[in-house]
Amino acid sequence: MNHCLFDELDFSEDAFDLTRYILTSEIRLDLLLNLYGESKVLDEIKSALNKKPGNILRSLNELIDRKLVIKSDKKYSLSSTGYLLAMNIINLFDNWNSIDNHFDFWQKHSINSFTSQFIKKIYIWENAELIESNTIEFDKTFRVYFENLHESREINMILPIFSKMHIDTVLESLIENDSTLNIITNNTILDLIYENDADNVFNSLIKENKIQITLIDSDLEMFFTSCDNFSSLFLFYDKMLFDDSEMLLIKDEENIKNAKSMFNYFEHLAKSKSL
User: What is the CATH number of domain 102-271?
Assistant: First the structure.
């Protein structure tokens, strides 16, 4: 569960200590973030930070000693470790914003099946729209979900539940839009799909290479969909009780791409039997 396909800097004890070392000093944090993305000479750093020159120089030397900063030809730049540490700290800040924006959503649901990589990339949901059903629109979440699904050409899905209505709608979308479907699920769900495939539509689409299936042994407590036009997330309450009343919905292009990378990561774990 803890294997990460693109974890450049694992959250080991050393990485945690380095993160704490940076976050406990305003000037060290400012230096790391100021050098993130480009090299600078000392005068540029002094101008950007507006700190005492002696404090800046001392802190730079401390970062050099920690192998987080490199000095070459009067220019200071981040080392590989320093760059990755800065990137993780930026992601950490983004993640806090994401959690804060949807605090009730994360708090009331189970996140036991989240991998470390999913947690570290949780910032992609920061600006997601929270879709909620209510007593008047009791089916709002799935209605919005299916409206977006019907416009998709590429559908990638972690499927932890079986619903005939849901499967029929997905298959209908595949046929109408000439779309493709990539599913990560388990044998229990797959067997139920086959049992309810009276018209043999599901099996026919598999034979036409419209559907690809990756099987896992575990029960993932998330219904995660990544498409070319949106991404969404439903979660479970404790004890595997699925919550269909709330959904996070992503529509911006950048985070749609980030969600696709996340699905690829899950697929890699599933195929390597690490999920």
Answer: 3.30.870.10
